[in-house]
Structures are given as structure tokens and as C-alpha cells.
From TrEMBL:
Feature: compositional bias, Basic and acidic residues: 1-18
DUF676 domain sequence ranges: 76-304
Taxonomic placement: Eukaryota, Viridiplantae, Streptophyta, Embryophyta, Tracheophyta
Organism listed in the record: Carpinus fangiana
Record-linked SUPFAM superfamilies: alpha/beta-Hydrolases
Region of interest: Disordered: 1-36
Ranges of compositional bias, category Gly residues: 20-30
Protein name: DUF676 domain-containing protein
């Protein structure tokens, strides 16, 4: 399984401490208002699992070693950003985040994004990608010790993450912080050296894993990309014409967007553009994995989520399809 391969897991953990935002349910509210401690049967040593919410509903999860005063000995260095799909939220990733920390407690900060929850997922891949990029910057600002970054996107979240990494590619985040505080720092070596230093970096961090699950990379237009339509041309055509029902996101998915005469966004994201290096950003990751459902996914077809033609389906699975 080519997934997030981080540092060797520690065997330390006994209690789970959750810092709730005080809003209940989704955890919205200000940080650190209420703490709840509960047994976590998978923990073996002495540690606590800290969940920190911000006002927007995003939350970070990390394991904090209990050492006398409960201070972690070494801060985690690997930021794992998890992005929800259509009409989703950060809560969709809460269980997965706990499993990451269970397996890799020493080196991971699991950030469950909620800058694009619920109806905001209709705003378009580009708008959501911009939001995610800014959110990642704010997370790095809160955790300046991180050195590596990985993304995991479910369904639409994979496209949003692809747009966001293009926005963050080769960007000097620490320099942005300095300028935002009214300061300007330089080592006198010029902008060219700065660009070379951050070339191949995502937000100034080492890109490790980029993973998508059931993401419609090729869109949802025609070619049996949406299995529920059963390949009927009339239904696929009707879906394309009514894509506005899902807002700008629907137009992007069905390739009907035409912003200022430009090609559809998903087509542009298959190449580097002048302002956004979509493919260079993707290629900078050490591991790039696209998981696809061969059966029983009625909304995202195997071809679009695996970036393959239908005749490239594994022969055993293809035989099963023919027998159904």
C-alpha cells in the first residue's frame, strides 16, 4: 500500500485529550475552552491525543507526550492535510486522523480542513483551492517546526488539493509572514536564489505524499464517468446541461466552464500554466497515489478516478462486469 510512510511509530499513549471548541457537535468556537479525557484502548505508554479547533471549525490532531508537565519533547515535523469532498466537512476525517496518530504518533500533525464545508463546496474548484492554500499557510504559521507536507483528498477534495498545491508551489511562506508583519528580510542573495531554494517545495516544505480517493480527475462529463447514468447518452447530456445545479463546481466537473474564453479548468490543470504550475507541483511529491473504486461507486467512475481508459480495467474485474 503506497500511502503515508512517515517515521517509525512510538508505543506511547494511554489517554486521549480533546480540546473542544465549546460549540458541541462540530466543535466550532474558540480554542481550548473545554477538555475531555477518555480512555483510548490502542494507546500503550503515557501520552495524550490533542485536538485543537479554530474559529472556522478546522482542527489539528497530534500526540503530546506526557513528561512531567505534559510537554512534548520534540514537536512533530510532518503535516498531513486531509480535504473533504462535496458537501463534506472536517468531521469526515476525524476517525482517519486518529488512525494516523495511532500508527505514527511521533511525527505527525493531522490537519482536517474545513475551509470548504457543506454548501461552500459549490463555489468552484479554484475558489476552494484558494481557500485551502490560505488555510495551509495559517496551519504552518501555528506549527513553524513542520518540515514535510502530505495531502489526502477524498472525491472533490482531491481536485481542491491539486489546485491548492499549485498555489503553494515554490512559495516562500516565511517571507510572506515577514512581509505581512511589516518586515522585510533578505540574505542579500537576490530573488533568484530564493526561487531556487524553494523550487520543488510546497509552501516551503518538503512534499512527500499526494493521495486521492475516488477523485474525478478527468471530470464527470460523458464516457460513463458517472456510473449511475449507465452510459446512456441522453442522461449524460442532461447532466451536463444541468451542471449549474452544483454551482461553479458543477460547471468545472462537467467541463462546461468558460471563464474569459479559457479552456475548462480541469483541462488547464493537466498542464503547467503561466501563473500556476499544476503539474510541476504534483510532480514534486515523492509519492502520488490515486485510489479508485472498481465497483459500487455510482457517482465517480473508475476511469476518471484512476486516470485510465475503461479498457485498462483489470481483466478479472472486467470479466465480473461482463457477467453482471
Amino acid at each position: 500500500m503506497a500511502s503515508v510512510e512517515l517515521e517509525r511509530p512510538s508505543s506511547e499513549a494511554v489517554h486521549q485529550t480533546e480540546v473542544d471548541g465549546g460549540g458541541g457537535g462540530g466543535g466550532r468556537g474558540s480554542k481550548g475552552i473545554m477538555k475531555k479525557t477518555k480512555k483510548a484502548p490502542w494507546k500503550l505508554g503515557f501520552a495524550c491525543l490533542r485536538t485543537e479547533y479554530d474559529r472556522e471549525g478546522n482542527f489539528d490532531m497530534e500526540v503530546v507526550d506526557v513528561d512531567g508537565a505534559g510537554v512534548r519533547r520534540t514537536p512533530p515535523t510532518h503535516l498531513v492535510v486531509m480535504v473533504n469532498g462535496l458537501i463534506g466537512s472536517a468531521q469526515n476525517w476525524k476517525y482517519a486522523a486518529k488512525q494516523f496518530l495511532k500508527k505514527y504518533p511521533d511525527d505527525v500533525i493531522a490537519h482536517c480542513s474545513e475551509c470548504n464545508p457543506s454548501m461552500l463546496t459549490f463555489d468552484g474548484v479554484d475558489v476552494m483551492g484558494e481557500r485551502l492554500a490560505e488555510e495551509v499557510i495559517s496551519v504552518i504559521k501555528r506549527h513553524p517546526g513542520v518540515q514535510k507536507i502530505s495531502f489526502i483528498g477524498h472525491s472533490l477534495g482531491g481536485l481542491v488539493a491539486r489546485y491548492a498545491i499549485a498555489k503553494l508551489y515554490g512559495r516562500d511562506i516565511m517571507r510572506d509572514f515577514s512581509q505581512g508583519n511589516g518586515e522585510f528580510r533578505t540574505n542579500g542573495s537576490g530573488d533568484l536564489c530564493v526561487e531556487e531554494k524553494f523550487h520543488g517545495k510546497i509552501a516551503g516544505l518538503e512534499p512527500v505524499n499526494f493521495i486521492t480517493s475516488a477523485t474525478p480527475h478527468l471530470g464527470s462529463r460523458g464516457h460513463k464517468q458517472v456510473p449511475v447514468f449507465c452510459g446512456f447518452y441522453t442522461l449524460e447530456k442532461l447532466a451536463s446541461r444541468t451542471s449549474w445545479f452544483l454551482g461553479r463546481t458543477g460547471k468545472h466537473l462537467f467541463l462546461t466552464d468558460n471563464d474569459n474564453g479559457k479552456p475548462p479548468l480541469l483541462l488547464r490543470m493537466a498542464n503547467d500554466c503561466e501563473d500556476l504550475k499544476f503539474m510541476s507541483a504534483l510532480q514534486s511529491f515523492k509519492r502520488r497515489v490515486a485510489y479508485a473504486n472498481v465497483q459500487f461507486d455510482h457517482l465517480v467512475g473508475w476511469s476518471t478516478s484512476s486516470l485510465r481508459r475503461r479498457d485498462e480495467l483489470p481483466k478479472v474485474i472486467l470479466k465480473l462486469f461482463m457477467e453482471v
